[in-house]
Amino acid sequence: MRIKWTSKASSDLARLHQHLRPVAPEEAARIFQQLVRAPDRLLGYPRIGEKLEAYGPRERWLRRSRAARSAISEVLGRAMNRSSTCTAK
Q: Taking the CA atoms of the chain, what radius of gyration do you get in angstroms?
């Protein structure tokens, strides 16, 4: 199998490099090389990025983790309030 860059993709990559080069030439070159080599990984790992139905979308996970953090913060806040009232007596 061979991966072929479209002219639009090549043009976008060149424009990105031209945009970054004046600000950070070494980083622009590094990013350019990483992006050029990235499709080659697909040859060795063709299923990389395949959607697994067993795992829900990231947004659902983020909502759950935000809710968990909120609950933890609330519990810790109450615990801190209790400990400060205990030491104030």
A: 24
**Distance (Å) of CA 13 to CA 3, 20, 28, 35, 42:** 15, 11, 11, 8, 18
Residue 71, token pair as written in the block = 């609950």
Q: How many CB atoms lie within 10 A of CB 14?
A: 11
Q: How far apart are CA 77 and CA 28, in angstroms?
A: 45
3-state helix, strand, coil in the chain (%, to 5): 75, 0, 25
CB 28 within 8 A of CB 20: yes
pLDDT, tens only, 58-79: 555 555 566 666 766 676 666 6
HSE-CB at 6 with a 13 A cutoff on CA atoms is: 3
The answer to whether 80 and 72 are in contact (CB under 8 A) is: no
Give this prediction's pTM.
0.49
